[in-house]
Amino acid sequence: MDQAMPAVEARHGRDPGRDLRRVGANPNHWYPLAWSRELKPGKPLAVRFAGDPIVLVRPKEGPVFALEDRCAHRQVPLSNGLVEGCAIRCGYHGWAYNDAGQCVDVPYLGKDKLPNGVRAYPCREVEGLVLVFPGDPALAASVPLPLLGSVADPRYKTRRFGREVGCHYSFMHENLMDMNHQFLHRKQMGNMVPRYRGGDQGEGFVEARYTFSRVGGKQPLGEAAIFGQRRPVGKPSSSAEKDLMTIRTEYPYQTLRIRTGEDAPVMDLWIAYVPVDAAQRRNRTFGLLSIKRPKIPGLLEAGWPLLVLFTERIFREDREIVEMEQAAHDAQGEDWNQEVFPVIRNLRNLLRERGGATVA
Amino acid sequence: MDQAMPAVEARHGRDPGRDLRRVGANPNHWYPLAWSRELKPGKPLAVRFAGDPIVLVRPKEGPVFALEDRCAHRQVPLSNGLVEGCAIRCGYHGWAYNDAGQCVDVPYLGKDKLPNGVRAYPCREVEGLVLVFPGDPALAASVPLPLLGSVADPRYKTRRFGREVGCHYSFMHENLMDMNHQFLHRKQMGNMVPRYRGGDQGEGFVEARYTFSRVGGKQPLGEAAIFGQRRPVGKPSSSAEKDLMTIRTEYPYQTLRIRTGEDAPVMDLWIAYVPVDAAQRRNRTFGLLSIKRPKIPGLLEAGWPLLVLFTERIFREDREIVEMEQAAHDAQGEDWNQEVFPVIRNLRNLLRERGGATVA
Amino acid sequence: MDQAMPAVEARHGRDPGRDLRRVGANPNHWYPLAWSRELKPGKPLAVRFAGDPIVLVRPKEGPVFALEDRCAHRQVPLSNGLVEGCAIRCGYHGWAYNDAGQCVDVPYLGKDKLPNGVRAYPCREVEGLVLVFPGDPALAASVPLPLLGSVADPRYKTRRFGREVGCHYSFMHENLMDMNHQFLHRKQMGNMVPRYRGGDQGEGFVEARYTFSRVGGKQPLGEAAIFGQRRPVGKPSSSAEKDLMTIRTEYPYQTLRIRTGEDAPVMDLWIAYVPVDAAQRRNRTFGLLSIKRPKIPGLLEAGWPLLVLFTERIFREDREIVEMEQAAHDAQGEDWNQEVFPVIRNLRNLLRERGGATVA
């Protein structure tokens, strides 16, 4: 990988251009704001995109919808109110709004005098995710919904995971794409040495490919559950060495696939990082981790608890380190990142170019 | 009430003029800063008015007094010190101040060399309230003490209640005066429909009058305790419909009275909202709820615990909703209120006109 | 002491010049940043000087060293990493740094392409203190290490104490030097009346001398442990009256010595106040309290628990009051201090003149 590194002068400079950690997520995409299972019929759910309060509503009948989470009257959250048919009624003075955000009732006012309502957001429900389009609604129809990996493929079993992480979403993309951070997971994974096998970039995406060799430690059982087999401690020419990991940021989503030689990947991860607060210093992660079922029935189910434990531990280590990065950025007040890996420099440029407005 | 509503254009605009939530309470009035029972002889009590620290002192003999709660020397709170006779002595180096705020002793300094003291506030104790005049002391003598409703009338029993609420005092006034917020209390009160019966306004006050009819649910026992009788589920022509509720903001205080036909009200509430912090985003509420004793002796006492429970629940619902309003204002950074009820628009103008300086 | 006081006009004015509470500690001195016992071999320790994160490292062999606590790559704390030989390796992607802060290894990069490293701080270990020079490293060799009182003298037993205090370091200096604050400790010490016996000032120091007479209360046992004897309730001419206490700020350190007539002090305190956060509104106190061993062997050891308890109580009272001073300054936004004691005015000038840059 050494050969790919730029000359010394270029390496030591900090990135020019606007501070990546202040680049807002581009709102003109579909973002998951909740898991379907979190949104109960008749119980409004308060969520946020980049500080904007949004209420998700699942009526007793009909599709879910999303509105600004405030009553036009006194600004209290509609999520504190009641679902009535296909409308939501504020819990304070009883103003009601339909799924287009129109005010359809004020109990003490004639129907001809109803005031303005609130903003409605385009909303779709796919594969257990409630997706919202927080940007210009006129663009929603022309922006495709995300491809969610192998989640719909019956040959796979999918784990839905994620939680709020206290950092800008860009740290998440960089964390996953730079596999040299295997060092962070040395206690969970043993001493795995990544080898960069080249990358790719194009309209709206950056991709990196790696192989790995184990130079110490034992293969964790959780990892074995992913591959459906135990692996020996790696020699450079071992079969593990030929497993190819492909990580791709296809703005604003990220995927990670592992192929062991067959066509279909043995692991297919789709992940999105949704800014929560206005400063976009927190993100909520929605991950779909699809594992190809091995030939022996029941084996994957048997190994599943181990896989869950293993991925939780990895995810916790990642969360702790990216939160340290955010804390350092907060203290330093600007991005002191000194990146030496060209793939990550490309990724950073992509996130800057595709991102939205600068945040405070 | 429909008829009273202004035309559409006017209704949808936001209020012009300065942001009501940044209008400071006018300091040139008497404000309760503590209950008498909180202020023990010889134990100084630290309180605040709009961020200004004030120490209340009840000497072993003589009237209570109020000073700036800081030593002129090193600025530590005098409330951390000792009451000695009619003076308070700082606990750090022992500087002492009399009830006029004059420095009367520095243990290591001659009496002829005593430094300047601290500010004293006009202070009165009435009906279990310690009232302070935080504005220009020269005006105190000309500003009347508040009339505290029926608290001194032996025909009434009074509950003293209140706590700190995390919002600007103006939300409190609006909450109480707009009885359409009965919808908020639907679980406590059943389905009560308010009917606006007209209002009044004049020099320093706004008043609104309502009747109510019950269209569902049962009369709560706590409410029965207030009226001294059970009421049937209301029909528009029932006796309950004739009960008249009058709510009045007489700046800076608020009252709510219920009359059932007799001259003396069956319920007489006096309430004040005192800003605590400098930004006036928190207020401490002091309420005197006077209930007319029914003819049967002991009945009110028997029902008192129910009344306490009932009013606490109502107050908690109100507190939660006004704190949501404040949180929305904090997030929105300005007042997006869209008021359709003329009485509340008048009330808002009164609070703006009578209020003090703008706060940050 | 009266005679020493300036005329009234001068006394009532507030200090001119820059706000003392915003004067940063001068970084061109040696500051203790940790106790030796806190820094274990192979376990990096994260500390701060005025907001700057510093990692202290004790290799398995060789002297301790101090670096900026951030990896040059992604800015995460090096203190989260691993000590390897005489280097520290970042826990994220494995970049390693030597004791001079040079980057000596990036696992996925050739040795000829290593990026810039991080700043190293001059560092010494003396008498159980890890001392760091946070200012211009070129000056470190010419600035003497602090003289730590009688800590190295076998005739003394030393207690190492201290903790974080939520105030600017200047409050600590003023607290200790103004012995009129004995009033604060009246519950611990009884009624001790200090008498100012003159002072001294010169290049980089201010000194004050006091005697004391007990006018009430009993001598605490902890105090007796310091003097190695019980004292009667003081009469002005008692022997206690002749004990001389000398308090000296020798920038940036402070000492307090008590002499009972012999040459060597019976008590010899050395203390430093190290700013922790960037605003320097918190300090960590490092104190060395050396007590001269009395002639009877074992007596000091027997009384030691009492001395510990006594000094902890005194220190807690001091901590509470200086944190109140800081809170008052935060609320007032500037220094309203009204000092009447010339020694303290001199001390304040010294701290202002010797201090570093103004902090926010």
Automatic annotation (TrEMBL), chains A, B, C:
<protein>
    <submittedName>
        <fullName>Aromatic ring-hydroxylating dioxygenase subunit alpha</fullName>
    </submittedName>
</protein>
<dbReference type="GO" id="GO:0046872">
    <property type="term" value="F:metal ion binding"/>
</dbReference>
<keyword id="KW-0408">Iron</keyword>
<dbReference type="Pfam" id="PF19112">
    <property type="entry name" value="VanA_C"/>
</dbReference>
<dbReference type="InterPro" id="IPR044043">
    <property type="entry name" value="VanA_C_cat"/>
</dbReference>
<feature type="domain" description="Rieske">
    <location>
        <begin position="30"/>
        <end position="132"/>
    </location>
</feature>
<dbReference type="InterPro" id="IPR036922">
    <property type="entry name" value="Rieske_2Fe-2S_sf"/>
</dbReference>
<keyword id="KW-0479">Metal-binding</keyword>
<keyword id="KW-0223">Dioxygenase</keyword>
<dbReference type="GO" id="GO:0051537">
    <property type="term" value="F:2 iron, 2 sulfur cluster binding"/>
</dbReference>
<dbReference type="GO" id="GO:0051213">
    <property type="term" value="F:dioxygenase activity"/>
</dbReference>
<keyword id="KW-0411">Iron-sulfur</keyword>
<feature type="region of interest" description="Disordered">
    <location>
        <begin position="1"/>
        <end position="21"/>
    </location>
</feature>
<dbReference type="InterPro" id="IPR050584">
    <property type="entry name" value="Cholesterol_7-desaturase"/>
</dbReference>
<keyword id="KW-0001">2Fe-2S</keyword>
<keyword id="KW-0560">Oxidoreductase</keyword>
<feature type="compositionally biased region" description="Basic and acidic residues">
    <location>
        <begin position="9"/>
        <end position="21"/>
    </location>
</feature>
<dbReference type="Pfam" id="PF00355">
    <property type="entry name" value="Rieske"/>
</dbReference>
<dbReference type="InterPro" id="IPR017941">
    <property type="entry name" value="Rieske_2Fe-2S"/>
</dbReference>
